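Tutorial sheet, problem 5. The two components below are modelled jointly, 950 residues in total.
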Amino acid sequence: MTELKKVQGPPAPARAPARGPAPADGASALLRLDDATVRFGGRAALDAVDLEVARHEIVCVLGPSGSGKSTLLRAVAGLQHLDGGRISLDGHDQRGVPAHRRGVGLMFQDHQLFPQRDVGGNVAFGLRVRGVDRREQAEHVRELLALVGLPGAERRAVSALSGGEQQRVALARALAPRPRLLMLDEPLGQLDRSLRERLVVELRQLFGELGTTVLAVTHDQGEAFALADRVVVMRDGRIAQSGTPLEVWQHPADAFVARFLGFDNVVEAKVAAAGDTADTPWGRLRLPAGPRQGAAPAGGARHLLVRPAGVRLADPSDAALTCTVTARTFRGTHVALHLRPRGDSPGIEAACALREAPEPGAEVGVTFDPAEIVVLGGDLAP
Amino acid sequence: MKSAPADASRRGGAARLVLMAGPVAFFGVFFAYPVVAIVRRGLYGDGGRRAGRILDVLGQPDVRHVLWFTVWQALASTALTLLVALPGAYVFARLDFPGKQVLRAVVTVPFVLPTVVAGTAFLALLGQGGLLDQLWGVRLDTTVWAILIAHVFFNYAVVVRTVGGLWAQLDPRQEEAARMLGASRFAAWRKVTLPALGPAVAAAALMVFLFTFTSFGVVQILGGPGYSTLEVEIYRQTAQIFDLSTAAALTIVQFAAVGLILAVHARTVRRRESALRLVDAAHTARRPRGAGQWGLLAGVLATIGLLLLLPLGVLVARSLDTPGGYGFAYYRALTSADGGTFLVPPIDAIGNSLRYAFAATAIALVIGSLAAAALTLPRPRTDSTGGTTSAGRLVRGLDALLMLPLGVSAVTVGFGFLITLDKPPLDLRSSWILVPLAQALVGVPFVVRTMLPVLRAVDGRLREAAAVLGASPLRVWREVDLPMVRRAMLIAAGFAFAVSLGEFGATVFIARPDRPTLPVAVARLLGRAGDLNYGQAMALSTVLMIVCAVALLVLERLRPAKASTGEF
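Model answer (structure tokens):
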């Protein structure tokens, strides 16, 4: 595990890119999906998905429910048969290989601990079916339980565990047979918020120490950004974007990804041929200088994202755009303001400091900071 | 590239076929073959011009009378059972009182009692020289009332367990939600609980109807000459009048009727599987509050006492009531062969019965487990439009088919055994295994019924979790399914055991004269005149009742706390 140089510690949502290993190239990919397709009836749950996961990489698949995330995991685990394409592990095509011979681990959303076995029996399960001798099993179980923070819990009944403890036991059970790839399905989905935030940090630390290759799915962007080296956003069975958390956060690929990440200020705009301004329902906006992101050509009809932090309040007489404050939401570090421009142009969300937040009903002028504006790719259909 | 899913469903289908092979072969050889053979012999036996025989038989006034009586007594029994048992279902589901667990077991005892014992008990209560006769000069045997009351006695538990089991798991908060929306207590019950219970009530009613429609022992013992169900008539035509063709025609009629009932039952059960919000039964019961609930509880307890316990008590009392005062004279008489009724002392019947019942239980467990496992194999995924695959239909068909032995005339099966299993390669006529084989036929449906809900309740992802951890399919079954169904299997074994012990209709044909089973011995003793024979019948019935009750009470302790909705 010495080749691993992961930085430990709590990752911030927008941390530096390339902290983990470089994105997979074909040679070092542990898991590789080519054109993987799964259909339920007429609907494609996985639609020609290409994906690679490198050794020791933590990849998080992010998407709304029904986007095909869980189907992706089940297909890799061998629990769901492919209707097309292929899945390779270590370069070997997995077609026809049953789930119990794939050597991957899967932690289920609701843990699925074996109710009739105690904690030790659950963790030892994978070792037992592989015929590991009892002493070795016990030794290994002891280590794993210590690792996940439940030392000495071997004889406890799983029904007596709290949600967080069950999650730890499920993790220890999945890790015990040393799977070459560990998959997590909504690993923290059922836990309460504070526990979730603590566990996600612990998980990342643990996977770093063990050098585990991880493919996780979640619908929670915070969880994905905190856990992953690389985030894959899925929509309707397809991959909408793939990149480091920072890349995805800073430059959402299209309007769908931007909205899924919680950005509401997404509007259609006409970008000038020079690429320095865009006409929007909110008026003509200046665009950030420098090279364009995305492969799409600069000019023409595009979607524009304005981050709430880029919406500046001004005196109504100084600004081209005047809005009415319709609501304010306290967000801890700042206040989210909902602004309604005159006319029927779409509403705007602005972030502003607690002390400066105007009352609902107040009239404010609005200007936009070009540094917080992103020209999005993708077609114009919202 | 397109072959992967096809491979998968083919693999699943193949596994299902392998598992089904045992049960299908068993039912083919020991059920379909004898039944078909005897029906063929009846219809075509003497000349082959008898295809229209069914219509001839149905045209006879006697037969029409039997048919009419069979249907109306079954309807009346069902209605009466629902009337008497539904309050019981409520009390067991929603009220909490000391001794409830024991009482629940006690209520189930009659269901597993041999019909012969029940018949005898009611004879002791309602018959000539019975308790009512002595007290008030009232005799109900040879009246239809005796039959109806005995049918309620038997099927009380069916309603209490099927309906009450579901009732206990219905979330009371749904009723509370309705009341918060302004519904009165009764309106909330009628609008929320009743519709949810409806399918369970229908399923229970159909089971009761099925059991009473094919009733044999009770009617044979309690019904006078005027009252004869189809099953009794088949027995009479076969064993006493030797009119095989009439018996065959009646068998077909009964078969068709039972098939219809089972088809309706399968539909109801499927509807019942529709998503209901179920909660742990342990949290829905409350201590009785108010005069209404206490009154209901008292009424139900009184009903159980009078209807279920009194007859059994009278039976025990009669067995001890000898001409020389209370004592064990009748029991002692069982040990001697002097009575002349048998070639062997009646007490030997206990050993025979136990031996046969153990063998029958083993057979039923193996066959029933295989069938249950085949029925729970993961089904090929249906598409999202809700279309059902042919495999799904196959499973449901099989499910219903396994129930058939409950409804097909046991008399026919027994007689069919005699005429088909008498030549090589299946010359079993003189083999002791013949009796357990016939008894296992009735046991299998109970095994399947008991194990299926438990197997289906095993979360499929638990199996997947085991597979991903490296367990092969066989290992998954051993590690995940088996520990969960172990208790269900024991319970199933108990039911199969009790049913085998009490089986009468088929056994009476095939048990050898020197190897009678308990019910056969009781029936023979009852068929003879004299106090000694009557007393011995009572004594032997008491022995049989105790064996069954003990078996059941042991099982009740094994029943998992979160019992399935108590299907029979």
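Marking note: The longest helix of chain B spans residues 3-44. Full credit if you identified this.
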